[in-house]
Design goal:
The protein is an alpha/beta fold. The chain folds into 2 domains: about 15-110, Arc Repressor Mutant, subunit A (Orthogonal Bundle); about 150-350, Vaccinia Virus protein VP39 (Rossmann fold). The protein has 16 helices and 14 strands. Helix 5 (about 65-70) crosses helix 6 (about 75-85). The longest helix has 25 residues, at about 150-175. Mean pLDDT is about 95; it is low at about 1-5. The protein binds S-adenosylmethionine (SAM). S-adenosylmethionine (SAM) binds next to helix 11.
Length: about 350
């Protein structure tokens, strides 16, 4: 490759050229192609978690006949399946008996593997990807949130599990000491609102959730024994105005589920319901202009294409533009939402001045 700096020609040596190309194409190798294209392990792991094989084994050793008695099916099928789990190192096989590996005991038993279930639930939807792309058809309502109750419960739980770990980092960014009222828009199981109210005894919060989801939110708030300070309101944010009079509004992982038009309207509505001097906190995966970085966000957009009528991950510039158009000022960020490896989100904070 030839380039020029200040008129003098720079010729890169072949080694540098190869490195540059590999970086541009993110180091694709035939081996990576094979592992990215393969789904056997993902399906085997997901199925084992879904059927709660690891819980069933617990601390004991059991054989394929016991699996047949417990789950149904045939001894041959269970032998094949349990052998595969042993081959990938999640079980240990001794003679004819299978037991959990230390990793499986620690991370996959007693609901610890439930975070994998929401991915498992999406298996059939992903199978329709080529069809969805070529027909351009997208679901009429967000899935599973407004379609399948049992799956919604599982997804909310796995989001809550992550949010509880992220909350301490996010709260460090929020002006909690200056705020008496918080509105958590699309608050799910209320993880962030509950954490904020626990941190700030003077804070009161309202969580707004979709009418089809709100019963999950109410139950979580009641279980947290904080219902005196955290109110729950069933409301479709695309159809009804938000309540007014808040010092702080949190919109966490809601923008990516909606279309750009709905998001612009949401931010205008958020501006109206903030008190003067109040702040809005947006937390989401914010992309570069090209839509290719972070790469996780680009992949997540495909999931959103399959699961929502209009959702995708939006570019930082796009979201900043919506904030300005809604009259917000003093935009700060993007900040990383947390240093946790599973959290790809950024945070933007803006003010109603
Ligand atoms: C990905 S979850 C985020 C939950 C939580 N804020 C978090 O960050 O963990 C998106 C939430 O927005 C809610 N939501 C989506 N569309 C909505 C709408 N039109 N009205 C009210 N809530 C909505 C969903 O029910 C869901 O709980």
């Amino acid at each position: 490759m030839k380039g020029s700096t200040g008129g003098s020609r720079v010729v890169l040596n072949p080694e540098k050229l190869r490195t540059r190309r590999a970086m541009r194409y993110k180091q694709w190798t035939p081996q990576r192609l094979r592992s990215t294209g393969g789904y056997w392990q993902a399906r085997i792991l997901g199925t084992a978690v879904h059927l709660q094989i690891f819980d069933w084994l617990g601390n004991s050793g059991r054989n394929a006949r016991a699996a047949t008695n417990h789950f149904g099916g045939t001894r041959e099928g269970w032998k094949i399946f349990l052998d595969a789990l042993s081959a990938i190192g999640l079980l240990r096989k001794r003679a004819l008996s299978y037991e959990n590996s230390p990793f499986a005991l620690r991370y996959l038993c007693s609901g610890n593997g439930s975070f994998l279930l929401s991915d498992y639930d999406a298996w059939n939807v992903w199978g329709r990807l080529s069809n969805s792309l070529t027909s351009g058809k997208r679901p009429k309502v967000a899935q599973p949130f407004f379609s399948k109750r049992e799956q919604t419960g599982r997804l909310l739980q796995s989001l809550d599990k992550d949010a509880r770990k992220i909350a301490p980092y996010l709260m460090a960014r929020l002006p909690l000491s200056r705020s008496k009222t918080l509105l958590d828009v699309g608050g799910g199981l209320g993880s962030f609102a509950i954490a904020c109210c626990r941190r700030s005894p003077h804070l009161r919060a309202i969580i707004v959730e979709h009418p089809r989801v709100v019963s999950f939110t109410s139950r979580a708030v009641n279980n947290a024994k904080i219902a005196k300070r955290v109110q729950v309101m069933g409301l479709d944010i695309t159809k009804e105005p938000l309540p007014r009079g808040f010092d702080l509004i949190l919109v966490s992982n809601v923008l990516h589920g909606q279309g750009a038009r709905e998001n612009r309207a949401l931010l205008r509505s958020a501006y109206r319901c903030l008190n003067q001097g109040g702040r809005i906190v947006l937390r989401d995966v914010l992309m570069n202009r090209a839509g290719t970085n972070p790469d996780w966000g680009a992949l997540f957009s495909v999931a959103l294409f399959l699961h929502t009528p209009h959702g995708r991950c939006y570019a930082l510039d796009e979201v900043r533009g919506w904030l300005r158009a809604a009259k917000f000022s003093g935009i700060k960020g993007p900040f990383r939402s947390s240093p946790l490896p599973f959290d790809p989100d950024s945070v933007l904070i803006a003010e109603k001045s």
